[in-house]
Amino acid sequence: IKKWTPGVLEEVHGIADGAKVDFTTMFVYQLVDEYWVNGTAVAGSDHCSALASSATGTRPAIVAQNMDLEGFRDGMQTILHITEPSGLQQFVLTAPGLVGMNGMNNHGVAVATNTLTQLANAREGLPVAFIVRGILQRKTFQDARDFLKTVPHASGQNYTIGGDNQVAYLEASRNKVVQVDPAGNGAFIYHTNHPLVNDDYSREGATEAQAPGIPQSDSGVRYAALEKRLAPQPAGEVIKLVQQTLRSQDSESHPVSRPFLDGSHIVTFASMIMVLGSDHPYLIAAPGAPHQYGYSTYQFTRTGKTPH
Question: Is the pTM of this model over 0.90?
Answer without folding.
Answer: yes
